[in-house]
Design goal:
The structure is a homodimer of 379-residue chains.
Chain A lengths: L4 E5 L11 E5 L5 E6 L7 H12 L5 E8 L7 H17 L6 E8 L6 H12 L3 E2 L2 H8 L7 E7 L2 E8 L12 E8 L3 H14 L15 E10 L3 H21 L7 E9 L2 H13 L1 H8 L5 H8 L12 E4 L2 E5 L7 H10 L2 E7 L5 E8 L3 H9 L3
Parallel strand pairs in A: 4-5, 9-10, 11-14
Antiparallel strand pairs in A: 1-2, 1-6, 2-4, 3-10, 7-8, 8-9, 11-15, 12-13, 12-14
Helix pairs in contact in A: 1-2, 2-3, 5-6, 7-9
């Protein structure tokens, strides 16, 4: 990608022989916004980067290592993150506070910091233009495919790369996403867009309902191309949505994506909470896995939040089939089973019929493969 | 049981040839308190009973049917519950508002009300002293064993029966529990004890994190025996705890019970929320199934609530083994694996080291059998 540079190296943190360390150097004019997990059991890298970003908005580079989450290792983890930032700054002739650090992988093992610092040296001395596919491959852990996307609209490029497949064994945590736009957006506006898009995308997906210790999402303006804010926001949303959906598709043991839309709510917060409850319901996830048009489980999950719903107004659809509307409706079980069998993306729609707000959440089904991945592998 | 009478009959709601309808007649002097699910997609029986109990505290009888949850069937479900209460009242020479109705079983199928009313007639005309085992057998759905318990202390009997094994396929919902004490407690005090004990027992267990549409817990004083309130409360807690634990033991596909205790919290609300997050973590449940001493998943779940924890103070134990105390500790993985392998009840202890409050939650592990039960059976 134009202007953004990257360097990769191997610190030996992964079992595979692939590179596991990525350094990204941003153009001088870049404006970047970072969002971090709100889990209180945070990675040392998250603690360090969050504090650094709070004090200094002018971020010029970041380092990502895979294979080790730098989490649950005591205060040493924070020190290690600082050492990585300092070494990177030294090599790239930046100030230490201009560098952030992200980590993903095993929890509870100290980083072999000497090896990591040597890899940092190596990555910094072999910079090349950002290659989205290559960058995403370096930061994967148990992902089964690299996650990246690119669009160019009105001569403005927007692109990004990500990793994540749930918090999976052996203690592999983390979703990381880095989205770039060539358009210029001032920091305060960027921050607003960033939080809004985060809610709609990476905060509206679930594989196992588990919040990682390392989740981070960066939104970076690298250019000074001019574009109307609304179209910039649309482009960023498109890339972030695309990356978020790839994470769900790659959810451990998932055989299909479940798209849950709650419509007709009197607030979007309510629509989101209900969509989230359905998305995280084990009973709904296993029913989809079993191709079972079990609207009772969907209704029970929808009713389980702190937001009231009216069961005598509620409508539940799977794909184009309406199964319940204030009371059970007759439907062809065979057709719905076939739909659940054949579609890779299954749609569940709940209409509360009380207002005008909606929300969409993406989830994955849950079957034997999930148990296998999460129970049979070990630390 | 002395004074409490029951009648059973078969309405043909279950696939098995067993009785599926239970009528319980309480002594005149009884004082009863009822708690219902706060799911907004409620069973017609819950809607009817909750409204009736709000208007009239003097409950003299209740009817429980299994095999059909009387839920998701539109307003007809409420009408059916009323018809059952009216018929029971007629037969037992009570007022309709003195009778409550509970249902458990399939969601979304209308009750065959004529058959149910005939079964009510039959049950009311063959009353006998309450037999805990028999009563609990009548109300089971997919339970694999009947759930009841009995104690007698200081000549005061306390006893109860329950059903529940998670909200399981084919759309079988509901946990129901009925606890009785011979001691006299006035209504207002009973209500306080009831809510307190409910939080500590039936609201502190989880199989799949799914809140049923039919959950109900009744606490009934049948006698005028005198006993100090504190000892009455202790006895009721013992019976309720015993029944709650049986429900977890019988959780679908569960191979062991997980007892999660959060200690040293600065409020009991916080201790409870963190215990609940660990109890509902799919990653923790699958790790226990896989005998994997994965403290990273426990820590990540503990950090995922809205209550801050200090990762540099936190202590995590599995059984007698301390795995983490501000940082990872060396431990014999083999020994912890053996403990997870051999114990039917596995203990996870988290010490936040910030205060004096604790909370215990019971959960079950999650393996292939859970997926089988919930994905392979269908509506």
């Amino acid at each position: 990608m134009p202007d953004v540079l990257m360097g990769i190296a191997k610190a030996g943190l992964k079992q595979s022989p692939e590179p596991d360390l990525l350094v990204v150097l941003l153009p001088v004019r870049s404006i970047a916004s970072f969002l971090f997990t709100d889990n209180f059991f945070k990675s040392g890298s998250v603690i360090y980067s969050e504090e650094t970003f709070k004090k200094n908005r002018n971020i010029r580079a970041f380092v990502v290592n895979s294979g080790n989450a730098n989490c649950g290792t005591g205060k040493e983890g924070i020190k290690h993150a600082r050492q990585i930032a300092e070494r990177t700054a030294l090599k790239l002739k930046l100030k230490p506070e201009e560098v952030l650090v992200f980590s993903t992988g095993i929890i509870g093992k100290p980083l072999p910091i000497e090896k990591v610092l040597i890899a940092v040296d190596k990555a910094c001395s072999s910079l090349e233009p950002l290659d989205l596919k290559k960058a995403s491959q370096v930061i994967t852990t148990t992902d089964s495919f690299p996650k990246f996307d690119f669009i160019e609209k009105r001569k403005v490029k927007t692109f990004g790369f990500a990793k994540g497949a749930g918090m999976i064994a052996p203690s592999m945590a983390t979703m990381l996403a880095f989205v770039f736009t060539e358009a210029f957006v001032e920091f305060e506006k960027l921050r607003v867009i960033h939080k809004k898009i985060n809610e709609k995308t990476f905060n509206s997906i679930t594989v196992d309902g588990c919040k990682s210790t390392n989740d981070s999402f960066a939104l970076i303006c690298i250019g000074n191309k001019k574009a109307p804010l609304s179209s910039v926001e649309k482009d960023i949303l498109q890339i972030a949505e695309s990356l978020a959906k790839k994470i769900v598709e790659d959810g451990e043991g998932a055989s299909r994506v479940i798209k849950i839309t709650v419509k007709g709510a009197d607030s979007s917060k309510k629509a989101k909470e209900i969509a989230k409850a359905v998305a995280n319901s084990l009973l709904v996830k296993t029913a989809v896995y079993g191709k079972d048009p079990n609207w009772g489980r969907i209704a029970a999950a929808a009713g389980s939040t702190t937001f009231p719903i009216d069961p005598f107004k509620l409508e539940i659809r799977i794909g184009e089939y309406t199964l319940y509307e204030g009371k059970p409706l007759p439907f062809s079980e065979e057709s719905v089973r076939r739909y659940l069998q054949e579609e890779k993306e299954v749609e569940i729609i709940l209409d509360l019929k009380e207002g005008k707000n909606d929300w969409t959440y993406y989830s994955s089904d849950l079957g034997y493969e999930y148990v296998k991945i999460n129970a049979e592998y070990s630390t």
